[in-house]
Amino acid sequence: MTMTTKTGIGTVAEQGDRAPARPSIPPKLRRYGASIGWGIASIGLFTAIWEILWAVGWANPLLLPPPHLFLQDIPTTLGYFAQKNVIGSRGTGNGLTGLLMTILWTTTRVVLGLTLGFVLGVAVGAVVHYVRIVRNLLLPTILLLAPISPVAWLPVAIFVFGIGDVPAIFLVFITVFFAIVLSTVSQFESVPKNYLHVARIMGASEAQTFWRVILPAILPSLFMTLRLNLFAAWMVVLIAEAVGVGTGLGQITSMARATFNAKLVFFTMAIIGVLGFTFDWALRYVQSRMLWWVAPNQGGRR
Amino acid sequence: MTEPAIAIRNVAKTWTPEGRPAVHALRNLSLDILPGEFVVLLGPSGCGKSTLLYMIAGLEGVSAGTIEQDGIAVTQPSAERGLIFQEASLFPWLTIVDNVAFGLSVRGVPVTERRAIAVEMLRSVGLGDMLEKKPDELSGGMRQRAACARALAMRPKVLMMDEPFAALDVQTRSKMQDFLLQIWRDSGASIILVTHSIDEAIALADRVVVFTARPGQVKTIVPIDLPRPRPSRDARYHQYRDLFTELLADEVDRAFAEQEAL
Ligand SMILES: Nc1ncnc2c1ncn2[C@@H]1O[C@H](COP(=O)(O)OP(=O)(O)OP(=O)(O)O)[C@@H](O)[C@H]1O
Ligand SMILES: [Mg+2]
Prior knowledge:
By secondary structure, chain A is mainly α. In chain A, 75% of the residues lie in helices and 0% in strands. Chain B folds into 2 domains: 1-80 and 158-190 and 203-246, P-loop containing nucleotide triphosphate hydrolases (Rossmann fold, 3-Layer(aba) Sandwich), CATH 3.40.50; 88-155, no CATH class.
């Protein structure tokens, strides 16, 4: 009786082992392919609807030029991108390098602002956490300032820093800074007590505990906060460029609006879309490399 | 007479949580732990067993009395008094081998040396092929063994464990008990283990310390005079079982009565 049961189980197990014998694409690649496929399908559908609206005559090509129109005349469009980061240099026709430089300037501002906001945010958050008097003095103000839309800081940025790169970087900085400070402070409190106990038993100093236990424990959540604020950062840098810098993608959009150049508006919008997407992807990549122990798309809480 | 490794004298602990009434967790507790001894703490929930381990570890201060290790008052944590929690609490951002080497690296032991020690420790707990794995990739039992290796790498004189196997399934649990007896013999450290399982207490202990309900005190200390390994078929094993069941039932009743009075 027992014998039969055992053989029965054995057979089932063997069949189970042999089952996935058919050759197939690795699942990881298949998932990749599927997501790219759906991405193309989604954008294709969107474009098709737009093109049809144009073909039927519902979308005015002067106001809403469909993709084939605003992507068609690229050399002329590129003429609007200046190469130098100088106020007022516009329409001098530097072509592709001009476009790349414009992208580079905007990207640099975003990266600088994000980096500064992240590093200083964590630093201030740490001080607020450790030094009681700083906490009591700073936290109420931070709580008050945090919900103010970064766009509202624009006049302040221009009053204080004038016209140029600094106000744009400052706005990006402001967008992430308060969020990172608050996130750091709250994350400090949620570091598992046992991690801290282990550090103390092992004889770690305060500094060692901070750098080697607390920081890695909170970094995944901080990174998530950074990613959540990335799109806001892109938004404010464009506004700042349109108003107070005179270069970059934001300035181009603003100039295109002023000169009623719908093709240029949509071309720039397309570029901004692609850039934002690439940024998020790059941050996710950095996250998977630097925070290798966290599963992708996981907020880092455990 | 041998000097105790840990001497606990008239210790009391009162927790004063903010905005809540004070809790008298332990009162007038005295206990000696001998070098190389295996002591199990058994008692109703909330009687202060964990609190006692935290105070021996130096993570919490005493409210009254003294705790000494080798004649020196315990004032702060030390790797000589290792503590293992119910959850392994390995650092998820370090590989298993780096987790085990953490204490040594904090101490400034050079990389090659500390890695060699960590690898040896992991081999001795049967995790020789898990060196570069992430903690999440290990099973609960393996994580607990890695946590043991991390504590043992510091050559502790006393190893404390707070319900280390409570989260494991029955089979893993009995394997872990065998494993624990083996590392206890190899390391020569004293072990203080907290458990809710009477069987675990009988299987492992030289002496079982039974606590009263809160405020916790030593109710009785029962030496287990059985040669190891201790098969549960043994008649004397059953006598111990009955004894502990009875001792605990009294205290659990008292603990409940107090809860209801609140
Ligand atoms: N950090 C703390 N702050 C306030 N009260 C605490 C703290 N830690 C424990 N206590 C209280 O002290 C008492 C004893 O707790 P302790 O965790 O030591 O009990 P225990 O014997 O380990 O219980 P269990 O078997 O449930 O783990 C409990 O009433 C608990 O609520
Ligand atoms: Mg406990």
